[in-house]
Amino acid sequence: MGREEAAEFPELADDPAWYPREDELSRVPFRGAASAGAVVDATVDVVAGLAGIAAVAGVLGMLHPLLLALLVVAALPAGWAEVLVARMGYATVHLLSTSLRRKWILNELMADRATAPEVRSYGMSRFLLAQFSAVTRVEQGERLRLARRQTGVRVLGEAFAALSAGVVYLTLGLLLVFGVVPLAEAATAALAVGVGRTTLIALMRTVSRCYEEGLYFTDYLDFCTLARERTPEPSPGAASPAFDTITLRDVSFSYPASDVAVLDRVNMEIKRGEIIALVGENGSGKSTPARILAGLYRPDRDEVRWDDVPTTEIDPAALRARIGYVPQDYTRWPLTARQNIEAGDARGDAPVIAAGAAAGLGPVVDRLPHGYDTLLDRRFAGGQELSGGQWQRIAIARGLYRDVPLLIFDEPTAAMDARAEHALFADVSARVLGRGAPAGEEDRQPRTVVLITHRMTSAQLADRIYVLDRGRIVEHGAHAGLMAQDGLYAELFRLHLAVYAAPSGAVEESGAAAG
């Protein structure tokens, strides 16, 4: 973001340490990748220009070598100006990258269907338009400054080029006066100088264009190199199809450019076939271990082990292929219900129906016009829309569909009420872990479940509960034992019951009294 924009709207200032590659991600695909073709076209034009210059150079060299040298000198100011103009344009594109990205974000916020209800209900259109206008003013100011600077450089370059051309013609006249060059040859030389100067200036501009596009293409190549460096190499090791124990040993984690640890020396043990619950207040760091277990984050120190194998020695793709991760911010894919569940891994009807049943999707799918083959996007003909809770069941079914030994549920049921969430996870416990399931409905190989939730009643289903507070595990054990300790877990559990388990009349009376 430019200085003026940051001063006018300081709350919008980017943190370059937090988004170190956001500008490259927004700039490289559009300008960098597209510059490859422009570089090729400009290179062809340069070769053609060099051929024309070679012809003129041959004529002037035969007439007098001094004329050829002076012609090159005459074209240098214009060439210098064009290269400098190209550098200015490239620097301005870099300077405006953040502003252009912010304009795109604001445009999406103003036009996206998901944000439309709040934009209308809160009357935010004027505010967002003001933000958009502020960014546009900064961009316009920078582009006007660029145009003025480029114009000044070009005028200066043309002035020196004209002066240099005058020197060339003066030299040619002196050669003619002193008889060094005959009149006929002088006329030919004058014509060749004119043609050569025009051709050489055009060549300089083409070289400048090639140079500018090459700068953007170099950005693209540098970004590709960075991507290769950041892409983990396939590891000779591989995660086993199952495991006996997953352990986190003194695991710490902090976000880039932050001194505050989100996790601080966390130790955790997950045994095969267990339900593990991670609970805590908002901001306690309970979702971070889930993302580390899922292979999305790498801890700052120490390690995670599948049995005796550190995950750093396991191919990340092989590790993720053995994990079903259901995030809180799941994706609503504009695909059919079946494709939303399969996520690109089609294995027939039976697994889809089983995952849907375990996630409680049966009644939802029965009301869809084409069942699991119904398109879930109203933007397309025949598309249907689901409620937030129904979409959450789709996301859970997507995780259950994967034939993996470890399932991670990172608060995916926020749109459900407490009873619906508890019933859902009780059903998942029965069907997936084979605990109390009807005959024939239990999973043949019970899987391990890690559940992150702020609803304490769902945590009762767990074999072991880890309570996090400010990035540290402060308590762990089974529900009964933690209640007996009368610590943070017991406090959170009682508060939860006071909100969700109180009779409706009592809640209303409490609310009236508070009012």
TrEMBL record:
Pfam families xref list: ABC_tran (PF00005)
Segments passing through the bilayer: 36-60, 155-180
Domain of life: Bacteria
Keywords: ATP-binding, Membrane, Nucleotide-binding, Transmembrane, Transmembrane helix
InterPro entries assigned: AAA+_ATPase (IPR003593), ABC1_TM_sf (IPR036640), ABC_transporter-like_ATP-bd (IPR003439), ABC_transporter-like_CS (IPR017871), P-loop_NTPase (IPR027417), Type_1_exporter (IPR039421)
Coiled-coil residue windows: none
Primary location recorded for the protein, binned into one broad class: membrane
GO molecular function terms attached to this record: ATP binding
Compartments (UniProt record): Cell membrane
Xref: PROSITE patterns: ABC_TRANSPORTER_1, ABC_TRANSPORTER_2
ABC transporter domain span: 246-495
Topology of the protein relative to the lipid bilayer: Multi-pass membrane protein
The protein's name in its UniProt record: ATP-binding cassette subfamily B protein/ATP-binding cassette subfamily C protein
Organism: Streptosporangium brasiliense
Highest classification ranks of the organism: Bacteria, Bacillati, Actinomycetota, Actinomycetes, Streptosporangiales
